[in-house]
Fold each of these.
Amino acid sequence: MVKVLFVCLGNICRSPMAEAVFQQMVNQAGLSEKISVDSAGTGSWHVGEKAHSGTRRVLQQHGISYDGRARQVRDEDIDPETYVVAMDQSNLSDLRLRFGDHPRFYRLLDFATETSVREVPDPYYTGNFEYVYRLVEDGCRGLLQYIRTKEGL
Ligand code: 4NP
């Protein structure tokens, strides 16, 4: 099983959105038995909470269901084989501080092809969940292509 873990700060806005969008793409590609998808936050403030209402609303508008609860990233998440995909540079720096170097730490928008934006802006502050959705979709599409090539799927 190829494992993909999306990481943001709170695990209520961006990484749950990426998890849900990517899971749908994996399902549509018929790869749900080959690729597992999860998300977590570097921070612990929102552990146990549902995704932010803005994230739930935008996912629902795009026909995607999601019922995950926030959790914090754990030592056992950081397996060398896991694709750990952060939403911004600050998430990546936090991951490196805590877990050191890892061969598969990525930033989601480094896989995007339709935007030159490289940091997923935090909608917790901007309120712009639809814009974040479009960025996340672009990044997830590129990420799936990258993993398929790399893993021969
Ligand atoms: P996320 O957004 O990292 O995309 O889940 C945030 C959610 C909560 C907070 C910050 C960012 N917070 O400071 O509580």
Note: The mean pLDDT is 98.
Amino acid sequence: MTTASSPATLTDEVVFDLRYARSHDDLWSMLDELYGENPGFDAFRERLDAALRAGWAARPADLKRLDLRRDLEPDWFQRPGMNGYVFYIDRFAGDLNGVIDKLDYLADLGITYVHFMPCLKPREGDSDGGYSVQDYRAINPAYGDMADFEAATAAARARGMSVCIDFVLNHTAKEHDWAQKARAGDPTYLDYYLTFEDDTLPKAYEDTLIEIFPDNAPGSFTYYDDMQRWVWTTFNEHQWDLNWSNPQVFVEMLEVMLFLANRGVEVLRLDAVAFLWKRIGTRCQSEPECHMLLQALRAACRIAAPAVIHLEEAIVGPAEMLPYLGRGKHDGKEGNLAYHNSLMVQFWSALAARDTRLLTHVMATHFPPVLTNATYATYLRCHDDIGWAVTDEDAAAVGLGGPQHRAFLSKFYEGIYPGSFSRGALFQYNPETGDKRISGSCASLAGLEAGLDAGDAAGVTDAIDRILMGHALIASYGGIPLIYMGDEIGLLNDYGYVNHPAQAHDSRWLHRPRMDWDTAQAARQGDDSPAGRLRAGLRHILARRAATSEFHASHAIEILNTGNAALFAFARRAPTGSVVCLFNFTDTWQNMPGDWAIQHGAHALHDALSDAPVLDAQGAIALPPHARVWIR
Ligand code: GLC
């Protein structure tokens, strides 16, 4: 017989203890190493334990049920039915109640994951698009309140959609309560940030730091007269970097994390994680301690809110990005998702060059066939700029000069390279490094704006095909494809941002337009406008992806050599068979022999995307401009 106190009865406490036992070492091995020498370590240990228990105790019953479900289906986020959509709440739907009304629209598109762009209470005025958070426990009042937020996450959950929100770990707004106290001189809170009485250390750090916003926020430190101190501000002046070497910061942020988890968030996008740990003489990016902190945060979630996964935002080169998905001792224990920035950059690079060799080289050389308990967030566009993260070594491997190729890409997407179809704008030109990043909406970068302006029907069709080819690529590569708001109807650049004082300095607002619901509704009715064609095409891609079991993220990817620079190819290897995916990056017809696909594992020569045979009468796979096929 079992009694209430017997471990055989699955009380909430027993479940918690089992999960704590599961992740105990993943958590404490990191924290011991990070903070073990700290004189307050025992008190920290107690507070952290209490925070985990309190988080679990406060967790609503329906989320505890979801926890159990995710424990039973740990691959839920790797399944091909996962399709993401990313939007600013105000620009998409006005406010949180508006979002609930739009869930139908998203469900109809095939969306199962919705990223509400920064929605916690930001500082007033310029808040870096909401990434300057004043209060992590309150919702941006322009969007609603916490009750509205919980209603929105519950409504999404009821429809089988997981809500993702941003959790800015690296910095708070200088208006955050902690920062205000620090500014007033409270020593406890001064230790939450990185402040310096004189500029000796800031100067020493700056020797090796890389500027993030060289144009409008040069340098990484800000001097405050009233404090008589320098404050570490990697991004904007109003974003104060937190001092993660202080265990109090860890525990406070962990409490925030569990608070947000308990509001119904299922994916936490951990913002700017590369910057968490500072070490003199380095770029202060991706230091080993970043991964230790992230593993510890991951383990804490697995203990007190296991339905929640982590998306780590590290926009860095391939070798530096992979560890955010857990490499070496962190294998299977760090981020569940990380942005595949390289795939995004290489997509645009190959499109401009009409040459896939660099794309093929980078994907084949730097990325493993499978990841443990993790996958990519794949995307073509997001709310940020595109930085040409192409290394000189990779460029050289395919006979290109790194600086020349990067300069070509900037010119091409700015639209000033002869023959360019793109309409983009520069972001944060750094004359010292020659680095020129690019802003612009997916459609404008892909040629839709230029095609429409010129009344060029063929140009418009090319642009539509480029966009659909890109989406077919991110839907099959492995990982969760993230559709950026409005890309499904080809929203163009929004040039109006220059009239808003809080935005005018930041060209990223060019590609953060308001949703155009008239166009979206007409597209949904199936009109044959560019928007209608894009939406139908994208909806089809997402539906076919969901039906293609080989695209489960746990199935290996193998990059293939086509011997034709126009084509990019890979195979997804599932126990049930392979799918060979082929993409034509040029504006001209290409051919591949059917035998080539068979050699690489295709068996039926049937395109899972168009649901049609792929061979023409001559036994070749004929690929029109920007073709995309998923050959079984
Ligand atoms: C991330 C965000 C970006 C923001 C930065 C600072 O990179 O994507 O928009 O400016 O973090 O929070």
Note: Residues 426 and 438 are 5 Å apart (CA to CA).
